[in-house]
Each structure stands twice: as structure tokens, then as C-alpha cells.
Amino acid sequence: MTVTLAGAGSALPDRALGNDEFTHLDTSDEWIVQRTGIRQRYWLDEDGSLAGLAERACRRALADAAVAPQAIRHVIVATSTGDRVSPGMAVEVATRLGLGCPAAFDVAAGCSGFLYAVDQAIALIESGRAEHVLVCGAEALSRITDRTDRSTAVLLGDGAGAVVVSRSAGALRPQFALASDGTKIDLLYVGRQDRLLRMRGRDIYQHAVEAMTGHTRLVLKASGLGADDLALFVAHQANARIVRAVARRLEVPEEKVFLNVDRVANTSSASIPLALAQAAEENLLPSGGILGLAAFGAGLTWGAGVISW
Ligand code: ACO
């Protein structure tokens, strides 16, 4: 018995904003594309429902995995920007999906939230307490974006992605390694007063490259795998330069590095499941293929994992 990702789905808001929408902030398409790889992002309308977006992503993931909704008894949503402060969004998502009364809770671990949530799902399945766990990453970062600050406004987007984590007969045991460091809270946080994201971009950049490289090496070693064994490397999509720098250090060939930050920008906890769903749509995930996952974010938190598809 092992644990695998059995399917993925995603959903984006209707409203796409190109880089030209930010020129009033003394920035340019050229600067944004060169420094980040971002060409557009999606923002929810002011009164838009993030739970509604998450519901759509989850429905698509369940269909992709061919898992009946009744088989889901655990729902985990990774988010820091839910529609309400309390209760956690997983409860509303489960109800919207008509799942009855499953265990449902949120995980807030910055942009690493999705990996933390998948790690919990794996633990539930490996301990025999669940067969399938629905894990969703959903964020409306537009709600915490200072629209007057060019150094963050151009980076952030909204969206939702979901996966079904399932027991399977495959051979690879997933390996995840997660970490945090509260001494670096000031590098990236959302304060209580203005509730807007503040970040020291260059410091985060350096930490992100080192942390994702180090932890991916750890999980590859623990699995007895090399970078060559990966079917696809899917890292948190904050900046194409960061993802490429990590892949270079790990010696993952360029064609095995998935990038969609150009299309959706940084969607925090939604980033990796959104990327997985888009990679699946593009037939880049062979059945049984081994995925390398890596993330970093506010906390600071970071982590990496290997798991089969
Ligand atoms: N347009 C034009 N100029 C800009 C912009 C902009 N949008 N933003 C910043 N600049 C300027 C800066 O003011 C600075 O000017 P100065 O040299 O006169 O002081 C100059 O560009 C260079 O700034 P740097 O911060 O050194 O630029 P860098 O190449 O590092 O790119 C970036 C900045 C894109 C933010 C990069 O550092 C990065 O991606 N960092 C990581 C961000 C991240 O991943 N955050 C974590 C996730 S966010 C979350 O958790 C939701």
C-alpha cells in the first residue's frame, strides 16, 4: 500500500489583468516579465466567493480522479485569505460539494500551505484512517494586496487548485520534509492593522532558492531517487527565476520544470495544485510518474515532497 495523487483540478476567476494594468505604478510589462516571468494574473471581484472557486477546483479534481464524492471523509483547504476569518473554508467547501459532514479544516502555512496539507493527507491515509483525502489550495491574494505598491501588486493573483490524495497499490512511498523559521517573520507578513502583504523581496528570493533546493535534495535522498527519476518538477510559482535557479542547482532538465507563473502569477497556497491541474491538462503527468514538489512562503515556511501521480 502506498499513497498517490489520483487527480487534480483548478479554477480561476473570470477577470484577467495584464501587466499593462499596472503602468500607473511606474512599472512596465518589460520589468515584470524580465524580473518575474509574470504576464497576467486573475483577481476575484470585490464580492467574489473564494469558496465558490475552491468548489469548482474540487469538483474537477474528483472527476479527474474518478473518485465519488461519498468516498471523501476528510477535506483540507490550504488558505490564508478565506471569505471569513472563521470558520475555516474547508467546511463551506465540503457543504457546497454535498459531502455530508466530513472532517474539514484549514491549514495556514503561507505559500507552503498546500504541501503541509498534502503531508497531513498522506499521514491520514498511511495511518489507515482514510482512503481518499480532498486537498485544496485556494487564495484571493487580491484581498491583501496593496494596490499602490508596485513591488508586490504586480506579483499576486487569485485562484484555486485541488488534488485527491488516495491509497494506491503503487511502489513509491511519498517523502515530504517541511520546515519553518519564525525568526524571519519580518521578511513577509500580513499585519493585523492594514491587512496588506509586506515583503522584503530580495531576501525572500535568496532564502527561497536555498530552502527549496535543500529540502528537495533531502526528499530525493530519502526516497533513493535522483533528479533524473522525476517526471516533472513543480515548485511554488512565485517567480520564474526562482524556480529555474532551484532546478539548475538540482540538475533537473529544463523540459521537466513546469512553469505557469506567466499565466496566473503568485497564487500562494493555490500555486502548486493549480500547476498540477494545468500540467495534467497538458498531458505532462504520465500515470505512475514521480513528481518533485517544493514550496516556500510566509513564516517563513518551506518544504518539498516526492509523490507519484
Ligand atoms: N517595477 C519597476 N521597478 C520595481 C518594481 C516594479 N514592479 N518592483 C520593484 N522595483 C524596483 C525596486 O524599487 C528596486 O529599485 P532600486 O534599485 O532603485 O531600489 C529595483 O526594482 C530592484 O528591486 P529588487 O527587489 O532588487 O529586484 P529583484 O530582481 O529582486 O526582483 C522581486 C524583485 C520580483 C520581488 C524578487 O525579489 C522576488 O521575486 N522575490 C521573491 C518574492 C516572493 O517569492 N515572495 C514570496 C511569496 S509572496 C506570498 O507569500 C504570497
TrEMBL record:
GO terms for molecular function: 3-oxoacyl-[acyl-carrier-protein] synthase activity. SUPFAM superfamilies: Thiolase-like (SSF53901). One of its GO terms (biological process) is secondary metabolite biosynthetic process. It comes from the Bacteria. Pathway: Lipid metabolism. Residues 220-309 form the Beta-ketoacyl-[acyl-carrier-protein] synthase III C-terminal domain. InterPro entries: ACP_syn_III_C, ACP_syn_III_N, FabH, Thiolase-like. The keyword Lipid biosynthesis applies. Residues 105-182 form the Beta-ketoacyl-[acyl-carrier-protein] synthase III N-terminal domain. Gene3D superfamilies: 3.40.47.10. CDD domains: KAS_III. Coiled coil: none annotated. Keywords: Acyltransferase, Cytoplasm, Fatty acid biosynthesis, Fatty acid metabolism, Lipid biosynthesis, Lipid metabolism, Transferase. PANTHER family: 3-OXOACYL-[ACYL-CARRIER-PROTEIN] SYNTHASE 3 (PTHR34069), BETA-KETOACYL-[ACYL-CARRIER-PROTEIN] SYNTHASE III (PTHR34069:SF2). Belongs to the thiolase-like superfamily. FabH family. This is Ketoacyl-ACP synthase III. It comes from Amycolatopsis rhizosphaerae. The lineage of its organism: Bacteria, Bacillati, Actinomycetota, Actinomycetes, Pseudonocardiales.
